[in-house]
């Protein structure tokens, strides 16, 4: 089973790119971020024409997450992270699909740092860590995937010295990521590409993609029972080069039956 994550950077404005990728790559399950569309503007009919069902958690102009499946029903289990009933940002969606519990997330960017946005990022991260602990304790096959807005190590950024004050590379953010992993999660991309340069995001300006001046901020984390079934994990880098593409590329993991 192939499960992908893709920050689409505006699902309606880049719908042609999303549909082309779905048609060509045919992931069994796709987790999307940054829909930038309210619930009523989600392009369900176009997605269903490719054989996918979907659930989504939208928000006007910002954020938004979705889970797509062509391998069975999507049983939604959670919409939004627990811990802050006043949090109105659409950043987390969780569902059981084909025997796997999947948490799809769009973790806050957090810039500028310091400031209120960074404080919100850290509070959101702590809520994620608390919720993830409960998920992994179930012993079930669980994945947490999406745009984490975290570069865990210097291997995950082309020029780390330029990002020292950025919220994506801040020491406390990287520490939170590894506290999450220490619960028992496996970083699938880094496991498969232990010593390789591999990115999932390239800025639009100054030819960053052409120079491979990128970041690895999209992650696929597997619970112990799923990590034993890990076959492969890759990034569809070529998609980033398509016309009007997102600044992210899809990343995916292959899990044995």
UniProtKB/TrEMBL annotation:
InterPro entries recorded for this chain?
Answer: AP_endonuc_1 (IPR004808), AP_endonuclease_F1_CS (IPR020848), Endo/exonu/phosph_ase_sf (IPR036691), Endo/exonuclease/phosphatase (IPR005135), ExoIII-like (IPR037493)
Q: Where is the Endonuclease/exonuclease/phosphatase domain?
A: 4-248
The record, for CDD domains, names: ExoIII-like_AP-endo
Q: Which cofactor does it need?
A: Mg(2+); Mn(2+)
Pfam families associated with the record: Exo_endo_phos
Q: Which Gene3D superfamilies match?
A: Endonuclease/exonuclease/phosphatase
The family database entries (NCBIfam families) matched by this protein are listed as: exoDNase_III, xth
What is the similarity comment for this entry? Belongs to the DNA repair enzymes AP/ExoA family.
What is the name of the protein in this document? Exodeoxyribonuclease III
State which gene encodes it: xthA1
